[in-house]
Amino acid sequence: MPGSLRIAIVGGGIGGLTAALALRARGLDVSVFEQAEVVREIGAGVSIHPNAARLLKRIGLDDQLRKIGSPINGIALRTSHGEAITTPVGPATPAFSPDGGQGYNVHRADFLNLLFAALPNGTVALGHRCLQLKEDGDLVHLSFANGVAADADVVIGADGIRSVVQREIGLQSRPTSEGIMAYRALIPAERLAWADDLKDPALWLGSGRSFLLYPVASGRLINMVAFVPTDTESEESWSAPGELKALAAEYAGWDKPVQDTINSLDETFRWGVYDRAPLPYWSTGRITLMGDAAHPMVPHVGQGAGQSIEDAITLAVLLEGCTAVDVAGRLKLYETLRLARTSRVQALARAAGKLYRSEHENPTEKAERLREWMAQGKWVFEHDAEETARDALAKSGH
């Protein structure tokens, strides 16, 4: 795209690919550099709540999202013994989404494939592990482990919780464990006799543990996430093998659907649950961060993907029509807008995790505490990142 900024995105996950789509839609020249040699399918579900889904709709992905997603209309909460805690409520109800926006649970691999398919061939370069960045005047030089070098006017680090780009802009931060780990699995729906009745997420709570089920892949698969306490460091991996006997022992005596789910498994994967304290900054010069590279968060409000998508659209709005001399200022404006919001979401997610793990088993008491928390969290789902970015840009004078 002659005359437009050349933008290099380091990392081809959900955030990086969404940013590539949104930036290209605004006429920018974008290349994505992903360290993986091949695009591998990861067996995990991902929530795309209304704050993110409305942004994807605006870049033309609404129909595809509907095809691969299972609508979220609420969440059913139960004690470990199956007692109802509260009536279904959640981000797709009018209280949370006044514009009627719909959220979806999706299979991560389906969603990544959707994003890849929407980009022109050649946009994503696989097998490119970033080693070093060097800013020199109006350019950033990128060096990769395969010997390739590239130049860009802007570099966006979308390379995850152990970000090389974060290191290259002078930041050093360590992951913070929440003291829990998660067992994950995807179960074919036909294995569970009651799966057809599971239209929305169901969450069982008790004894410092929680057990989450929700449909993905248009109901063909059921995503399981089981959170348990741990005193040991767990891998920040979605594919480390877990022990089925250990999982079963954690949930001995729980509600029948929990037992049925565990008994149906051929395998499970364990996943260390980490976030990081908010960073002091995200941007230096022509380089910035997004997604888990900027704000990893625990998963208890389902906003990991959503906040990355908000980052992507914010960057696209602020870099559209940007000249080389304005890049640093626009990236600092992006940082100002996003760092404050994502820090609040991180804190909310941690608070939600503590509430889920609380020992209060009285359904009435827990229902009231959950209603209070949900009321406090409405601002997450109501937010319009694109509108916020446009307003901020208009006021900035850049």
UniProtKB/TrEMBL annotation:
Keyword Electron transport: no
Assigned keywords, A-Z: FAD, Flavoprotein, Monooxygenase, Oxidoreductase
Organism from which the protein derives: Bradyrhizobium valentinum
Source taxonomy: Bacteria, Pseudomonadati, Pseudomonadota, Alphaproteobacteria, Hyphomicrobiales
Example of a GO MF term: FAD binding
Entry-linked Pfam families: FAD_binding_3
PANTHER family noted in UniProt: GERANYLGERANYL DIPHOSPHATE REDUCTASE (PTHR13789:SF318), MONOOXYGENASE (PTHR13789)
Residues annotated as domain FAD-binding: 7-345
Name the record gives this protein: FAD-binding domain-containing protein
